Amino acid sequence: MKNKFLAIYGDIEAKIKSGDIKPDTLLPSEHELTDLYHTSRETIRKALHLLSQNGYIQKVRGKGSVVIDINKFDFPVSGLVSFKELAQKMDEPPKTIVSKLQLRKPDQFVRQQLNLSSKEHVWEVIRVREINGQKIILDKDYLAQQFVPHLTEVICADSIYNYLENELGLTISFAKKEIVVEEPTEEDELLLDLDGFHNVVIIKNYVYLDDASLFQYTESRHRPDKFRFVDFARRIH
């Protein structure tokens, strides 16, 4: 006979897939599920753990188990595309909110990321991406002024890469990427709709021109329940 927790897992999984249990809704409490399935709390915890492992629910501090939208946005890890290019594939057009645009001397951290001297300047661009009415991506861009002499809020709200390539004639060639999971900062809490999630997925990009000049450092900070980070790999023989 199938383990009880697997049967419970399968029942809840089927209801999530069929839409009987909607995304962003709370599952009943462990106590309520114990009564519903006539089983022990330990069995319920095993079923919930498996649901969490397989991406169906997310444990949210102070709330319980929230059902995740299984139709996540695919975010290509290995590609180098602008958010506007990704947005063209979405059913509902997302909204970009420019929270900050300023030209300033970089602090020590930004200088280290872009290999700049203390006398050089960078554009700091902070943008919030709102999808389906929820603010779920915070993009923090730092672009060396020596390569990007001019920026406006209109450009940042549309597409910086479109401006760089088609107006400035720059050739964006490749990027080094790093993916980390961290606790949200105060800025994340302020600008994103984290809704109790206590981690953000951060993609750090070091972006180079075709002459191998490093011109941009980016942190793209994502709410963890809305994205699936995908890649394609081929084994080399």
UniProtKB/TrEMBL annotation:
One of its GO terms (molecular function) is DNA-binding transcription factor activity. Gene3D superfamilies: Chorismate lyase-like, Winged helix-like DNA-binding domain superfamily/Winged helix DNA-binding domain. Signal peptide: none annotated. Residues 2-70 form the HTH gntR-type domain. InterPro entries: Bact_HTH_transcr_reg, Chorismate_lyase_/UTRA_dom_sf, TreR, Tscrpt_reg_HTH_GntR, UTRA, WH-like_DNA-bd_sf, WH_DNA-bd_sf. The keyword DNA-binding applies. It comes from the Bacteria. GO terms for biological process: negative regulation of DNA-templated transcription. It holds the Pfam family UTRA. Keywords: DNA-binding, Repressor, Transcription, Transcription regulation. This is Trehalose operon repressor. It comes from Aquibacillus salsiterrae.
